[in-house]
Here is the input.
Amino acid sequence: MSGPLARTSGLGETMREQASLYSDDADRFAWYREQVAERRNGVEPSNSELLRLMMDQFDPSQV
Here is the structure.
């Protein structure tokens, strides 16, 4: 992968980012997961996959 999402730590290792969601944010994330699962006949995306799908739709210039 290239671009802003393909960073390395300088040792050739791919960077890892972690995020924790609480309260309403966690509920919202779970709702999105359920919506995707419904469209996939019950197959839920992983956290990473759901986040990638959401980032693909995100346009930073609209913030």
About this structure: The chain is about 45% helix and 0% strand. Residues 23-58 form one domain. The mean pLDDT is 89. The longest helix spans residues 23-39.
